[in-house]
Amino acid sequence: MAGRLRKRVAAAASGGPGGRSPLMHSLRRAWHDRRLVLLDPRYTPLVAAVLCLAEVLINLWVIQRVPYTEIDWQAYMEEVEGVLNGTYDYTQLKGQTGPLVYPAGFVYIFTAFYYITDHGTNIRLGQYLFAVLYLVTLLLVFRVYDQAQKVPPYVFFFMCCASYRIHSIFILRLFNDPVAMVILFFSINLFLEGHWSLGCFFYSLAVSVKMNILLFAPGLLFLMLSQFGLLRTIPKLSICALLQLLLGLPFLIENPTGYLLRAFDLGRQFLFKWTVNWRFLPEEVFLHRGFHLSLLAAHLAVLVLFCLYCWNRSQENIISLLKDPKQRKRPPQLLTADHIIFVLFTSNFIGMCFSRSLHYQFYVWYFHTLPYLLWSVPVKKHTHLLNMLVLGLLELSWNTYPSTSYSSATLHVCHAVILLQLWYSSSRSEENHRPQTTQGLLSGRRKKE
Predict the structure, then answer these.
(1) Contact between 277 and 358 (Cβ < 8 Å)
(2) What are the φ/ψ torsions at residue 103 (nearest 5 degrees)?
(3) What is the number of other CB atoms lying within 10 angstroms of the CB of residue 321?
(4) CA-closest candidate to residue 124, choices 62, 75, 183, 54
(5) Of 4, 100, 160, 402, which is most buried, counting CB atoms within 10 Å of its CB?
(6) pLDDT digit string, tens, across residues 52-87
(7) Helix or strand holding residue 5 (H, E)
(8) Contact predicate 215/351, CB 8 Å
(9) Are 377 and 422 in contact (CB under 8 A)?
(10) Is the separation of the CB atoms in 176 and 106 below 8 Å?
(11) How far apart are the C-alpha atoms of 435 and 149, rounded to whole Å?
């Protein structure tokens, strides 16, 4: 009996009667299928763990060896100091690069950074904080990709370790864009888990750091209407609105018009010298109001087309989404992780395609979504090469400083290729939206074996 007890204890300690823990089982399977580890999306967690460890070393090396470049950090600290000194009128808050143009959530979060970094003077500590933000962002992004099960793991190397510009945005420039994006990816993980109310809270928090997060809003609204109908969506939208009200309350009390116009200025004019995407245009065209309105019209038109023909997979009239799900002709299907990711990522990407101007730090707005956008199409062997070429050209375009007519044109060509692929893939039957990323490559490998 004592012998049997010892065997049971040993089996429990090792993870089961076979004597293998889940970790050891996964490692043994990975070793057995080692030729497929970089191709099969099932191995996303394993590859992600290795890349995150590599990223720890890369970030430490960059912080220690590559000089920090001051752009906006000092301005952020001056804007925060203005609030800490008692100024709640947004029209009076400014830094060395101009007025404060971000919502109130930015103020609170960067106030914390202000105190942690000794009033913004300890730049090195700030870099380490942003390195942590970078790693948390990667973990959240990898979790999204693990649920999507579409992207071959070898692509993730190019999504993290190989991008100079993204490392620069996080740890060499300390922009506020990464702060907004890490909160956004946390909210997406909540949506994927079915926590829509809590997800809306963090989504709104991300918006309160920087307005670019609103590019995800059309897709998020569509998903909530699909899942809940109009009446049950309103409380979730109220969470978003109430949080904005509470965060902005001190500034709204002081000067409501000033706060709204500064923090949510949709008509803000951008400088031509910083544009990444419209360098091939004459400056007068870039600044012309008619050009801005035409981009807005194109943005809305493409959103409507995707909403009608790509996002809506229920085979019901789009108006019926306003009804309670129980009152629709067909019972609504549960939203799959793939569909949630597809709608949110395409909503944001369409906004990027038709932006009035993209600056270098805006790359992080969609960088981590690009592998999914490219590999959401049913992929064949030659398509992998095309997708890698598009990723490489995008990285080249965003790393060309100052931007040129050729780099801007290349950026638009890449955007057009991705947009057409998304339209083509989502206009096909629902069957084609199942994970097929490495089907051709894997089947070829298995035949050989």
Answers:
(1) yes
(2) -65, 175
(3) 23
(4) 62
(5) 100
(6) 999 999 999 999 999 999 999 999 999 999 999 999
(7) helix 2-14
(8) yes
(9) yes
(10) yes
(11) 6
pTM: 0.89
Mean pLDDT of 256-282: 92
| Spatial distance between the Cα atoms of 356 and 265, rounded to a whole number of angstroms | 14
Helical axes 177-192 vs 337-353, angle rounded to 10°: 150
pLDDT band, residue 267 (cuts 50/70/90):
confident
Helix axis angle, 177-192 to 123-148, nearest 10°: 30
- Among candidates 441, 387, 382, 376, which has minimal Cα distance to 33? 441
Mean pLDDT estimate for the chain: 88
The DSSP letter of residue 36 is T
- Residue 200's closest CA among 229, 227, 230, 238? 238
Q: Which two tokens stand for residue 151?
A: 């992207």
- Name residue 426's amino acid: S
8 Å CB contact between 185 and 141: yes
What's the DSSP call for residue 88? -
Which residue is listed with tokens 């470049």? 69
381 C-beta neighbours (distance < 10 Å), count: 11
Place of tokens 């460890």: 53
- Backbone conformation region of residue 378, classed left if phi is above 0, alpha if psi is from -120 to 50, else beta: beta
309-340 residue pLDDT tens: 999 877 678 888 888 888 887 766 778 999 99
What is the rounded distance in angstroms from the CA atom of residue 57 to the CA atom of residue 73? Answer: 24
Rounded to whole angstroms, how far apart are CA atoms 306 and 319?
15
Q: Cα 382 to chain center, whole Å?
A: 27
* Angstrom distance (rounded) from CA 105 to CA 263: 10
Residues in the chain, how many? 449
Identify the DSSP state of 314: S
State how far the Cα of 253 lies from the Cα of 262, in Å rounded to an integer: 15
Q: Of 108, 112, 103, 99, whose CA–CA distance to 72 is shortest?
A: 99
As a whole number of angstroms, the distance between CA 43 and CA 25 comes to 13
pLDDT single digits (tens) 393-422 = 999 999 999 999 999 999 999 999 999 999
CA 80 to chain centre: 26
DSSP state of 66: S
Tokens of 56: 């720890």
